[in-house]
Amino acid sequence: MKKLAAISALWLALAVPALAVQPSEILADPALEQRARNLSAGLRCMVCQNQSIDDSDAELARDLRVLVRERLVAGETDEEVLDYVVSRYGEFVLLKPRFSIQNAALWGAPVALLLLGGVFLFSRAGRPQKANSLRLSEEEEQRLKEILGRADKDPS
Amino acid sequence: MIIELGHFALVLAFALALVQFVLPLMGTRLGDPRLMAVANPVTLVGFALVAVSFAALTSAYIQSDFSVVNVWENSHSAKPMLYKVTGVWGNHEGSMLLWVLILSLFGAMVALFGRNLPDTLRSNVLSIQGLVGAAFLLFILVTSNPFTRLSPAPLEGRDLNPVLQDIGLAIHPPLLYLGYVGFSVCFSFAVAALIEGRIDAAWARWVRPWTLAAWLFLTGGIAMGSYWAYYELGWGGWWFWDPVENASFLPWLSGTALLHSAIVMEKRSALKIWTLLLAILTFSLSLLGTFLVRSGVLTSVHAFATDPSRGVFILMLLILFIGGSLALFALRASSLTQGGLFHPVSREGSLVLNNLFLTTATATVLLGTLYPLLVEAVTGEKISVGAPFFNLTFIPLIVPLLIAVPFGPLLAWKRGDVYAVSQRLFAAFGGALLVALLGYFLIDGTGVLAAFGMGLAAWLMLGALTDLALKAGIGNVSLSVAWRRFRGLPRSVFGTALAHFGLGVTVLGIAAVTSLDIERVMVMRPGDTMSVAGYTLKFDTIAPQRGPNFTEDRAHFTYMDAAARVQGEIISSKRLYTARQMPTTEAGISTIWFSQLYVSIGDATSDGGIVVRVWWKPMVLLIWLGGVVMMGGGVVSLLDRRLRVGAPARRKEKAAPAGVAAR
After folding, report:
1. Sign of the alpha-carbon torsion through B578, B545, A62, A40
2. Which residues form the signal peptide (chain A) (predicted)?
3. ipTM exceeds 0.85
């Protein structure tokens, strides 16, 4: 709900809405266009909240889409295009954070957690566990019997 | 006057919530039944007071009383009545009031339906509910009061954000909050168990219905929110890994883990401490979600610092509840004994595996959501963590779990036999393989991943059916016996199968739509046609129209099949909401079986055409229908006789017709 509000706040900021990718932007070469779409989906619209330039209607997103396409047409590789965009806008523009030291914890955590959890469980599985020593009190045993007894008599 | 009554009721509710916190807790400490007896009436009256307060605010919205700041900021006299009412929670203050209303509703339900709980447990649970309620009521009264007056009263309101003027607002937030806040009951039960220093299988049985109820509401809330975003935002996406979505997805993931670990605890008296921890974590994630959404911290750490009053207050609440409960957990958990031995390969073992993957997935999504904040706070640099990260990490974590799902219910308790279970799942595996191969070779455009996704979906669905078939003994006994056995299976078995089947339905929708959807963008003039997915779409006319509080350009399309027979019409429009001068797109959607044709219009071009975006979304409805099936599984489980044991009065009413049907 809040996201909708946030996105609509963005609409407010931009007086003229337009749809994301415009027909005039689409490249003639389908392979190149597909690469452009893939790259766009991984680039953040700088004035939006968590929207890729591929989805965004913002003017700035449009400029960036055109820029990506120009670079691709000029023959650059995907990495070169991304490097160029990052050099202009910083790493904030990448929706997929780079594999760098700064992001080591981010990318490493899922694997590390799964391994640690797995090792912990595996090591515990081999160990004998203490038997259940917690007992119900007399009164509770009585009450439980009463409840279960009533359940047994249930016609269904 | 009504407004002041509502305000006064809210202040009274706060005072009563303090009483609800202090007296029953003292009662259990001192062993005084008179103090414990205070819990029930105070909880019920507290709920009534919050309800009065909520009704007062609603009446101000219905009457368009613009002397109330909150109404003036979020309503308009020309707004349709439905949106006047739903607008009550379409803003920060009102939605917090809804949050507290649902919290006190759950408290009242514990008071009403928990008569068979031991007095001390019920008193402690209600006491903790009271503390949560008091904290949030104070938050509303101090930082987010919806009853503030404005003088002189303006003649007209500023209208509700147009994107929110939709039936989705009537359903999505209440469902979501029922889920979020429902987990508060599990939390209170967990803290009460820690205070008492004892926990047993009966505890798990009492907590399970609340977990199930919260989970099924949250499932519905998330599915509804996803569908709403899909049709309202106009670019056809259904999940964006937006921090706000993640905020609701996190408690769902850990709540799902809780649901499963509570089964082990109830049946086998094992995983007690873990279940307690999950109950605490799940509600903590709900609180964190509220915090993330409400404080503005998501946009930037700096946005949070510029208007810190609300954010700091919620941060204090987080520290109090999460820190406090975890500290209590650290102090008390060691005094609780573990029980129930089991072999790693067993039903228990499979549920532990489920928990391992679900909690890792929860931690991954949590870290991804918060990482930009951490990096910014530490280094000052801004980075983004968006959909590509979550797709790359979450999907590999969840796929092994999905593959393992059909095994779980077939494994025996204590010690299972994977080999024997694999043999029983042979047919399901064959069916899944067949689906994957057919998908790969017969449908244009399916890649290996899409085919795998379809096979996985079939595996989940067939696995769920296999579970039911085996438990009924189909193949081993005569059909009439099998049918009788099938009818006699506990409802929780049906619930499990239904929920797992629903998961498969959702996976099928996701696999189909992510790999096979078709997008067309082009400039069209009235009379033009385009073809998409075997249909021909014709742009008939476009004309201006007036709505109650907006003007719009309505484009009319018809679509025809390959033989040029008209199959239906689609109306897609672009609106301008006059009060806020805010444009929106209203996508035109036509449903064909489970697939949809999605048409969204954009700007006019200089040569008299308009930009039209068309998507073919194959099987897209299955994504949300799967959620509905999962909810169905939750409802069926909730009706299980086992959970009603100890609620004798209700059981008798329902038992009679069931008994007749059994004969």
Report:
1. positive
2. 1-20
3. no
